Amino acid sequence: MNKNLLTIYSILVFLTVALIVGTTLEFLNPIADFIVTFALMLIIGVLFIFMLKRARRIQRKVIKRITIGIVCLLALPYSLTAIGIIMMTGGNYYPMWQDISIYTNNNGEKVISEWRETSGSIYDYRNRKIISDFGCFRISYNCDREKLKGIWTEYNIQNHTKNKVEFEKDK
Question: How many whole angstroms separate alpha carbon 134 and alpha carbon 74?
Fold first, then answer.
């Protein structure tokens, strides 16, 4: 019983952190992004099935019900995200994140502003701090542009212009 609980709660902690942080891999090719997205959806689905099977093996009814409830509670946001992804990718148009501006500073840090046309007139915007860029994919994570401080060089991709931008030092 303890082994089942330890396994289940370890996976739950991992999936909770993954839900909060999001994926750090960003594929720039739509086909590769599509394949990786659905592979991750399948892996996550298998993990939930695995956890539910393990939870059914728990002997004490109270702990079994609490564990199944927690697994189902965490499965809800993952299910809603999967439904949204399937709806966005189900048609002829596959929305991809497109770079708007690239910000760099003297320390070599790089932040990329991106946008995506989710549906019709619905647009999403985000900023990603780049850890590594390999050309076909990059390792990055979401960052808050308002937390950037100091002087940065902004490269506008559409206009091919560079500007110096000074973000607020302290708020």
Answer: 33
Tokens of 155: 């490269």
Beta bridge partner(s), residue 102: 112, 155
Q: How far apart are CA 54 and CA 19, in angstroms?
A: 21
pTM of the model: 0.77
> Each residue of 66-108: pLDDT tens digit?
999 999 999 999 999 888 888 877 767 778 889 999 999 988 8
Calculate mean pLDDT across residues 153-162. 92
Inter-residue contact 26 to 138 (CB < 8 Å) = yes
Picking from 138, 124, 125, 127, the residue whose alpha carbon sits closest to that of residue 102 is 127
E-assigned strand segments in 120-159: 122-133, 137-142, 150-156
- Helix residue ranges, H only, the chain: 2-21, 30-56, 61-89
